[in-house]
Write a structure and sequence with these properties.
307 residues; alpha+beta; 68% helix; elongated; Protease HtpX homolog; zinc
Length: 307
């Protein structure tokens, strides 16, 4: 089997590739700039800043699949435990000519799915028990094809890195402000430098977080449309994916608000966002395009395929 997303049979998406490269370049530039500001303001503490930022970045990239699995309560399952789920993934991976990811299930009534991992060989696809209970086999196939396309296109890794850099800016700000690094040998200089840094560092951190937030939102919405397209074209059944989308979105809106709030930090990874009906109507900066947009696109693909 092919070891690279570039050789899988999922339809390539130049628009997605261009957006991923642009997002990573801009966020990387932002991150380097932020680290540079901290080094200038904190002077003697720069080795620690570089060590912390580099260490956290490597850890997040290397263990992103494990971290996300644990955060979302996912557990890896065997073909004996979930034969239909594994069978569907096996068929789709053979159809797409891509490595089979690890398969996990989260014991959660919210119907949803997600994929994570730094590359196709180190990825995991997870579904909730709520999703398995509610979907017909062809609908489940559409959702799983959608998640596998995220893995094949490698946009999961880009979203993981891009999202983490904004959080990391906040962590480094706290370390700088409360870790006793603002100062020098001269008492007056120390007070003056500390006052300047106390004003500048939070402002720079807020700007870094805001820009990374907007960039990841824009990429996230596009990648969901790209995954819907790729899944519909691979399976040849856009109507099944549209049916799954409609069912999942409607069922999520009925989940208790307190459960949705717990899941919302991970919305960028989910097949459908954990939003109530009211939230979905008012959220301007959603991680996902609207249900109407997604269904309209699938309708066009269906007409083109003559389904």
């Amino acid at each position: 089997m092919s070891a690279s997303s570039q050789h899988s049979r999922f339809a390539p998406d130049r628009g997605l590739t261009g957006r991923m490269v642009t997002t990573m370049f801009l966020i990387g530039l932002l991150y380097v700039g932020f680290t540079g500001v901290l080094i200038v303001l904190l002077r003697g503490a720069w080795p620690l800043i570089v060590l912390i930022s580099g260490g956290l970045f490597v850890a997040q990239f290397w263990f992103s699949d494990k971290i996300t699995e644990r955060a979302m309560g996912a557990r890896e399952v065997t073909p004996e435990q979930y034969p239909q789920l594994h069978g569907t993934i096996d068929r789709l991976c053979a159809l797409a000519d891509m490595p089979k990811p690890r398969i996990a299930v989260a014991d959660n009534d919210m119907p949803n799915a997600f994929a994570t991992g730094r590359n196709p060989e180190k990825s995991v696809v997870c579904v909730t028990t709520g999703l398995l209970r509610r979907l017909e086999p062809e609908e489940l196939e559409g959702v799983l094809a959608h998640e596998l396309s995220h893995v094949a296109h490698r946009d999961v890794a880009v979203m993981t890195i891009a999202g983490f850099l904004g959080v990391l800016a906040g962590v480094m700000t706290r370390i700088a402000l409360y870790g006793g690094f603002l100062g020098g040998n001269n008492r007056n200089n120390n007070d003056q430098n500390a006052a300047i840094a106390m004003m500048i560092i939070p402002l720079v951190s807020i700007v870094v977080y805001a820009i990374s937030f907007l960039l990841t939102r824009l990429l996230s919405r596009y990648r969901e449309l790209a995954a819907d397209r790729a899944a519909a074209q691979l399976t040849g059944r856009p109507s099944a994916l549209a049916s799954a989308l409609t069912k999942v979105t409607g069922q999520i809106a009925a989940i208790p608000t307190k459960d949705l709030r717990k899941a919302q930090p991970y919305n960028a990874f989910y097949f459908a966002p954990a939003l109530s009906a009211r939230d979905a109507a008012t959220q301007l900066l959603s991680t996902h395009p609207s249900l109407e947009q997604r269904l309209e696109q699938l309708g066009k693909i269906s007409a083109r395929l003559g389904e």
